[in-house]
Inverse folding.
């Protein structure tokens, strides 16, 4: 697919701009974003997506980057620059184009055996998960409806339904929707409810299964144009809790050390302004394995491991045990430097979520966590650095904990 073909699919009701200048799309309103994005695609310049919630530092970084963009037409590939921060807090722009996006949409359609894909969008469009939900509908002739998460969270669920409709949520959104009967009934109407953007926990998945939700656990990232593996709802209903098998447009494998490796035509072209080899596989920071059925099980991130007293501690495993106590609305685990042990395990939670009974927490995790894995400190934070897509900014979390003393 060429850029002009993508522009036609977006049905842009704007004059085609032939400017070679880079365009920044930074719109909070979904309708305004779609208009601005369609206009930018119709041009010839680089297109940068930006988060309207960015502060002065992130906006300054983007301005400095734009100042170095050469005054020439964008290349045929890698013209769409989508921000990604991961858990490190360092914002980079993954280069995509009409070809990588179309490959991702085609793989999705084949995996779920559907022609027209309709999407209910409650995730922001500047994020790859929200963007791809819209593009799947646009490229297959399906229907896209953007809905306000604030209204859905209050139980004001839309009456809209469409055949082959999908919706994506992050774990914290799913947790809140499960508490409302109307929201549960609404989620049951979809072909699949995708859950990604952050780690899920067994209690949440069990509750979703009891509610008979058509859940699909998935795995993907900005660099892969969203999901590259996905569990079909019928597999979830049968008890499978993996991230599903690879979509047909990619190959996914795990190295001997557990590193998850991805290859395929939806992979990004590089972090702007750099390029990566077109055929090169992506060695991720995620650790996992593929089971006998070829389904991916993600066990955590290599760059998030805590080394304390020579022992490797996966913070996600500790977070899972803490969530299972039922005392936390949200919780995250980090390692702080320690002169004797190298690092000490610290659990953080949003102060607005209430005060957990820490005595009960310690009693309940004792049988499941070895002593070196148990948090040595519990820190409430007034500011909670988890974004709308469920991503936790661990760099910011570390700064906040240090500031708290």
């Amino acid at each position: 697919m060429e850029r002009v073909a993508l522009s036609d699919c977006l049905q842009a009701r704007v004059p085609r701009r032939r400017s070679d200048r880079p365009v920044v799309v930074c719109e909070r309103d979904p309708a305004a974003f779609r208009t601005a994005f369609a206009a930018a695609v119709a041009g010839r310049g680089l297109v940068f997506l930006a988060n309207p919630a960015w502060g002065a530092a992130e906006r300054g970084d983007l301005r400095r980057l734009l100042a170095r963009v050469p005054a020439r037409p964008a290349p045929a590939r890698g013209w769409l620059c989508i921000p990604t921060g991961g858990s490190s807090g360092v914002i980079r722009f993954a280069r995509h184009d009409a070809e990588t996006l179309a490959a991702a949409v085609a793989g999705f359609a084949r995996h779920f055996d559907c022609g027209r894909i309709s999407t209910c969008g409650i995730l922001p469009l500047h994020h790859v998960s929200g963007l791809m939900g819209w593009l799947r509908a646009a490229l297959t002739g399906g229907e896209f409806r953007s809905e306000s998460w604030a209204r859905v969270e209050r139980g004001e669920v839309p009456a809209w339904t469409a055949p082959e409709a999908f919706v994506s949520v992050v774990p914290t959104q799913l947790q809140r929707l499960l508490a409302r009967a109307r929201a549960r009934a609404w989620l049951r109407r979809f072909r699949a409810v995708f859950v990604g953007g952050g780690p899920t926990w067994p209690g949440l998945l069990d509750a979703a299964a009891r509610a008979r939700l058509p859940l699909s656990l998935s795995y993907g990232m900005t660099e892969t144009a969203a999901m590259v593996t996905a569990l079909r709802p019928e597999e979830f209903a049968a008890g499978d809790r993996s991230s599903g098998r690879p979509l047909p447009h990619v190959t996914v494998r795990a190295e001997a050390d557990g590193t998850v490796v991805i290859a395929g035509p939806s992979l990004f072209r590089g972090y702007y302004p750099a390029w990566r080899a077109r055929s090169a596989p992506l060695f991720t920071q995620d650790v996992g394995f593929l089971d006998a059925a070829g389904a991916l099980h993600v066990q955590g991130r290599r760059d998030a491991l805590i080394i304390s007293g020579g022992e490797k501690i996966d913070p996600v495993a500790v977070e899972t045990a803490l969530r299972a106590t039922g005392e936390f609305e949200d919780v995250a685990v980090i390692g702080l430097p320690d002169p004797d042990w190298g690092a000490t395990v610290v659990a953080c939670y949003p102060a607005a979520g209430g005060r957990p009974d820490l005595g009960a927490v310690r009693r309940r995790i004792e049988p499941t966590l070895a002593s070196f894995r148990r948090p040595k400190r519990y820190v409430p934070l007034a500011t909670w650095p988890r974004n709308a897509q469920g991503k936790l900014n661990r760099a910011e979390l570390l700064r906040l904990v240090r500031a708290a003393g």
